[in-house]
Amino acid sequence: MPANLSLEALKSAVASGDIDTVIVCICDMQGRLQGKRFHAQHFLESAVEETHCCNYLLATDMEMVTVPGYEASSWSRGYGDYIMKPDLATLRLIPWADGTALVMADLYDHHTHELVPHAPRTILKKQVERARAMGFEPMMATELEFFLFEESFAELFDNGYPTPTPMARYNVDYSIMGSTRDEPIMRAIRNGLYGAGIPIECSKGEADAGQEEVNAKYSDAIDTADMHSLIKLGTKQIAQDYGASVTFMAKYDDKRAGSSSHIHQSLWQGGANIFYDADAAYGMSDTMRHYLAGQLAYTRDIAVFLAPYINSYKRFCVGMFAPTKAVWSLDNRTAGYRICGESTKSVRVECRIGGADLNPYLACAALLAAGLEGIERKLEPGAPISGDLYLNDTAPQVPRSLLEAAEALNGSEFLRKAFGDDVVSHYHRAARWEIEEAMRVVTDWERTRGFERA
């Protein structure tokens, strides 16, 4: 049975009893897949056209709290419905769940039947449409880092999240022997995701004890964001099946490295990468230079989509491979933007700012919007910066906090033009709520520091 299912193939699999469940899901603001599991026959008879969900799914926080202050969804508006319309091009088998297929859905307003403007997939779709109107096809890939632990999700939850035990006991970056203990789970993750139609290229040990990275082949921007969401879901579910757990937190422990999600980007025309110019310095075409310059110019504006939580900014520390400066460089891992494939047909921009906790639709949309703005304005990136950028005090700084990033988002004329006022206000409210909650909650660190000595 093919991993990517046509509707006819699904009908055949349902008739033969090979598939009995179809998951219909959307991506929420936090990058999680939310939706329903359908009896496969009912999906074919009804939900294949549309189903419905409460519109609070785009107005809650990580705890599913009904957050006050949103214009689009609130108690005063009654928390009505959205239409979930399956995108049948995304229909696929889910090998790690017996007899199960999955399809992504787009969200439509129940009354106007228009796409919900602040839905993450809608935001990315609109920027892709903008790029296509300019003659470009955005191609992207995301790398995903995470930590793999011996304890189960339930065990950690029930015990108040004590410090978990990494599956690997020491830094296993590129180590074949060191990552051997992880391999039964990592092999299942690679094979399961590949069987779901996600072209997994490899996995590897990363830069701290228990840290792993999994990479999928580049694709068009929307497919890449869909795959990213499924990689996170599949990784968590497969680890759970083994009685283990993973975290995609940007920084789960102040003594450990953070987990990133680097985003590789290029623009194509006629099946070729137009970022490449054999006669230009570093093989970078004018289009690529303008695109890169746009991202450099608007890093502060889009930072909240690359680092969406209080915890996200704890990853930006010296000496642990997370960039702290919004500059570009050639094959330099201390820069916010690294040029990969220099002077080759695969030349591309790698944004290294985003953490593994980002929402892939929002992050890819924000980067694309900034790059297209740079092209339209013919911005120039200047010369590449070299050396240890952690020590460069004159280079532009990545925002140091969610508050700083949230206010940059709120004041961004560029993003209000690209995304719309309502969308910017919606995600500014989301960021402010995270800040308000962090200010309200007493942490273990505060109690340890001040219980006796304050």
From TrEMBL:
Keywords: ATP-binding, Ligase, Nitrogen fixation, Nucleotide-binding. This is Glutamine synthetase family protein. Residues 17-112 form the GS beta-grasp domain. PANTHER family: GAMMA-GLUTAMYLPUTRESCINE SYNTHETASE, TYPE-1 GLUTAMINE SYNTHETASE 2. Belongs to the glutamine synthetase family. Its cofactor is Mg(2+). It comes from the Bacteria.
